[in-house]
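Hi Y.,

Following your request, here is the sequence exactly as I used it, all 105 residues.
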Amino acid sequence: MTDTRTLSSSSSSITNHVNGTNTVSSAPSDVNNVNGLTEYVNTIFRQMEEKFHTASDQVMNRMNELGRKIDTLESSLGDIISHIPSEESATTGSPQSVTATTAQQ
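Below is the corresponding structure, written out as tokens. Let me know if you'd prefer a different format.
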């Protein structure tokens, strides 16, 4: 199958020879096809860009939300740790721990 295209400058027509048959099409229709294809591709790219921006915004919002949750968790853990008696006071036998140990026996 061979496809040879020739452009006649005097008549502005394109002659296609495909498997021995000749078809004539006008140059403006090919230009319209190219313009239509270009418009279609640009539309697809715009849609992809919009979807990318939407997905990017969703990821950033989720990351910000997780960052806030981590900050809250760190704060809560800091509060819990500050209320735990230090090892020093537990090993020195503070009166509160001795009283609690005696009361359990």
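Residues 27-83 form the longest helix (57 residues).

Thanks again,
Q.
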